[in-house]
Design the sequence.
């Protein structure tokens, strides 16, 4: 039984027992996870020894391996550019709104759901955030304004419960209005709220990331952080975390943040001051704008457990480049 299956069973049991009524109420707005997804979405960055982004690479420059088995890239995109379909001979063609390369009347490939990144910001508004609340809002607002215009943004806030302050939109003003309506309050249920955010993100086609802005401690969640991490890992959703706490003051949360971000292809930042928070958001924005995203349908593989993904750059003969990507996933059964 997979971790996701165990998590669904766990949620069902506590719901019947009356212990998760809040989760049932908040999930009423949408369906639960699908039972199976074959398409693998993989986002990654390529940097040199000086941590400078390497851009301009093409599908033919990459070799994707899953448990050592070569995979055929189905689609390829760089940054917020529209993805392209990769043909058997290595040539490319535009990807249309239904996720295929086949022409469809009345569909403009420039406005399809696969263009840009779907960014979900999860803002901690618990009572631990009182002191830096206004500064945090300002840092998030600046981040939203600076996103590529092809990107979509959703703003969620949480303390004990999750609040969807702004649904996914390309209207920056609407997202910021939703952000400004957030209020500080209760205990912190970070991992509960992160799970719900991942469920929302999993329903959206195309590339997506979750950015968590939090001070760290979780004192109200019913789900374990590693179970949430496994969901993000298997869905192919990178998680970035900006913690307002000092890395050494909360070693448990710091360790969890490192593990969640590393295993999903994201990054963790410790930014106690407003200036450091702005810098962290700027770093994330650069990551999004300079990353590559590929999709592929896995080749036959008997492994029903964790499958290791590796990315190689065939044109990098000297092995001078560094690739930052999630290490793998568990297939749905």
Sequence:
């Amino acid at each position: 039984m997979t971790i996701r299956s165990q998590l669904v069973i766990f949620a069902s049991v506590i719901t019947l027992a009356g212990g998760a009524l809040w989760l049932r109420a908040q999930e009423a707005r949408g369906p639960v996870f699908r039972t199976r997804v074959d398409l693998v979405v993989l986002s990654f960055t390529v940097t040199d020894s000086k941590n400078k982004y390497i851009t301009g690479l093409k599908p033919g420059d990459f070799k994707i391996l899953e448990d050592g088995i070569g995979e055929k890239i189905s689609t390829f995109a760089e940054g917020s550019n529209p993805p392209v379909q990769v043909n058997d001979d290595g040539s490319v063609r535009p990807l249309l709104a239904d996720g295929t390369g086949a022409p469809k009347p009345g569909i403009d490939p420039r406005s399809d759901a696969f263009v840009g990144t779907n960014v979900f910001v999860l803002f901690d508004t618990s009572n631990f955030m009182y002191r830096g609340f206004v500064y945090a809002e300002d840092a998030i607002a600046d981040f939203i304004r600076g996103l590529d215009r092809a990107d979509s943004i959703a703003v969620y806030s949480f303390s004990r419960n999750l609040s969807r302050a702004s649904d996914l939109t390309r209207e920056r003003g609407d997202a910021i209005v939703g952000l400004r309506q957030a209020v500080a309050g209760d205990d912190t249920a970070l991992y509960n709220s992160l799970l719900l955010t991942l469920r929302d993100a999993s329903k959206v086609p195309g590339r997506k990331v979750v950015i968590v802005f939090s001070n760290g401690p979780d004192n109200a969640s019913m789900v374990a952080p590693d179970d949430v991490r496994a969901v993000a890992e298997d869905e192919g959703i990178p998680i970035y975390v900006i913690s307002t706490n000092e890395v050494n003051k909360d070693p448990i949360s710091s360790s969890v943040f490192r593990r969640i971000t590393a295993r999903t292809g994201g990054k963790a930042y410790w930014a106690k001051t407003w200036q450091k928070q702005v810098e962290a958001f700027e770093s994330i924005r650069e990551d999004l704008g300079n990353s590559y995203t590929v999709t592929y349908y896995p080749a036959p593989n008997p492994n029903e457990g964790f499958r290791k993904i590796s990315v190689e750059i065939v044109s990098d003969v000297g092995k001078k480049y560094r690739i930052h990507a999630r290490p793998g996933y568990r297939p749905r059964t």
